[in-house]
Design goal:
Distance between the termini of chain B: 68 Å
CATH superfamily of the largest domain in chain A: LarA, N-terminal domain
Strand content of chain B: 15-25%
Oligomer: heterodimer
Number of domains of chain A: 2
Mean pLDDT of chain B: 78
Distance between the termini of chain A: 108 Å
Largest interface: A-B, 54 and 46 residues
Radius of gyration of chain B: 26 Å
Number of helices of chain A: 10
Shape of chain B: elongated
Largest sheet of chain A: 10 strands, mixed
CATH class of the largest domain in chain A: Alpha Beta
Number of strands of chain A: 13
Number of strands of chain B: 6
Radius of gyration of chain A: 24 Å
Order of helices and strands of chain A: HEEHEHEHHEEEHEEEHHEEHHE
Mean pLDDT of chain A: 91
CATH architecture of the largest domain in chain A: 3-Layer(aba) Sandwich
Strand order of the largest sheet of chain B: 1-2-3-6-5-4
Helix content of chain A: 25-40%
Helix content of chain B: 25-40%
Amino acid sequence: MKHRPDRRLVLRRLGQAGLVLGGSSVVASLGLFSRGRWAGKHEAAVIPRYFLPAETGFPAAVVARGGSPAALARAAVERVGGMGRFVRRGETVLVKPNMAWDRTPEQGANTHPEIVAEVVRLCREAGAGRVVVADVPVHDARRTAARSGIEEAARAAGAEFFIPVTAGFTLASLGGSILDRWEVFDPVLKADRLINLPIVKDHGLSRLTCGMKNLYGVLGGTRGRLHQNIHISIADLASAFRPTLTVVDATRVMLRGGPQGGRLEDLLPVGAVAAGTDMVALDAWGATLLGIDPKEIDHIVLARGRGLGTFGTPLEEIHVGT
Amino acid sequence: MPQNRQFRWLKSLLLAAPLACLVAWLIVGGVKGSFSPDLSPSPGAEKSAPPRLPAASPPSVLTGFPPPEGDYPADRLFERVDGAADALIAAGCGRILFWRMEDPAAEMELLIFDRASGAAGILARDVGPGRDPGPGEEASVTDQSVFFRRGRFYVRILGDPAANPGRGRLLDLAGRADRGLPASEIQTSSANPARQEISP
């Protein structure tokens, strides 16, 4: 005789299966067995304090002219106290160029690779334990790293090199008025010092991209969302990631079509590199190269209001080889 | 008795419904991956990471050209032109297609607007007021670039400075692109596209 399943038994078993499935889903949704759960991965990381207290006797920012990109970078850093003022023996230094675009060095959309390499050498000479060059490109990361010439130059100078295909992101607490918590590129969080290496360019939205805007490149996620309040988010970034030192590439300046650019005709050869601890003064100087009054750039004014620097006084100029 | 039987079936259905929902939720969640992904790359990701390509290769808009390497709708323009995306969207740009050419060594972007005046405005922003003889209704030509607009289509061609393909070959490429634009969708405009545009 064929046994007919009892309806109550079926329902009871369905109920038991539901309990098992439901319990499993609750466990899964709580992430109890997810990777990193017990390492506190879901808690926001804290941004290291990269900025060092000001020392008297050194200018806050200087401009070097009249030499190769590498010579200009070296001379400018020497004038603001030398790399030994900013990097201590054994420290991990994160060097952050603008390496966002699939462009060659001639196209002036990314920081000049010779400047990146020279800053890496300066850090090593100062006794840095590790020098890491890292950025989060907009265009294809591998291709951008290669075509910009930055990966090759950085590695040749003795740096480690990271792009998002070789390192991950961690949610970090930025404490800004707009940027509260955001994914930050891991190498940035692991560094003791941050050296920002922006390039001066026109920017379709913020009008200027220089030091403060370059810090966008430490973030992951959908960065386009930040553009709705771009000046406030730039000021937030500058507050959260106040660099130890900023070295500005103005060997050529993109006057039009930025930040992506690409046309050689849009570049103005300026032949200068600026360096210093006052990123507001450096951004203001960058704005003047584009013919913009710094007071018209909201994030510069906001950053000054937050005590991150000042502007209004012409930067000291040094001439390499004279 | 039949009433009681009916009631028991109803009760069974009521009990089974949440379970079915639960199972469906688990399946959907598994397929969509609704839990926060681990952003760190897997071991060996450096070697195996494929180049970033659109999820599906759409049919080419340009006759005579292969499918584009990149296809960016309005909500993903920032992946191609971060920093300029908002200005493009405000001008009515809804899509960018991207090709990387080997012969001549150049990259080409086709920006598709919803109106000719939007395309004209962005061209003017990119290159300023000067215009040169070239393809399309208006063009800006240099030894390393050809930017031109025809109707609501705006094409930017950048020669690779390392390969230096030269003005002539870039113009040839631009001419092919101009001829490949879908004639029925161009919306031609006159010297003042803002006045003469045809609504999409």
